[in-house]
Amino acid sequence: MDSLIIFIKNPELGKVKTRLAATVGDEKALDVYCQLLKHTRNTTQPLPIDKHLFYSSFIDEDDMWAEDVYSKHLQTQTNDLGQKMYDAFMFLHDNEYEKVVIIGSDCLDLDSNVLREAYVNLAENDAVVGPATDGGYYAIGFNFEKIEKDEEVLKKVFLNKDWSHENVAQEAIDALEQLGLKIHILPELNDVDFEEDAKELL
Length: 202
Known about the structure:
Blueprint: E1 2-8, H1 18-24, H2 26-44, E2 50-55, E3 70-74, H3 81-94, E4 99-103, H4 112-122, E5 127-131, E6 137-143, H5 150-158, H6 168-178, E7 183-185
Parallel strand pairs: 1-2, 1-4, 2-3, 5-7
Antiparallel strand pairs: 4-6, 5-6
Helix pairs in contact: 1-2, 3-5, 5-6
């Protein structure tokens, strides 16, 4: 079985896109984020795979994400992003999913074709990484059917990491290569973090 993990922040004023809000204000930043959420929903909804939505603060039972399309969960309540992602992957791993990809909700360039490319290439590779132009990554995924030491790989990639530097994607790629995994690199896309990234949405 294939699955997609989607990490989102609950859309609350003053709590989303804070770097963007520093120049455009909280209300515009929230509006941009809501547009990004709609884009992420429209991009992922047609995919014929199980979709698992992980909220940052609370599970919203009455929002734009239809419960018959998206299984709703709460992210681990910690400030450590790596721990959150590790726990989400382990949850799906333990539920016997084979090809699992995680994305956020900040990438306006992401479309269904890129995600389809991820799953197609996971059939032949151990992992995929989608690098972002800011040095992070907008997607990372694993084929648990092909990887022997699944938990060890996830720990190496996600735990005890610094997420506030410009080489996050390369660090993940290096870790996967050190483990001897076969990797497919997805197209480099731009995340929306600052005002210049959000011109189309503003």
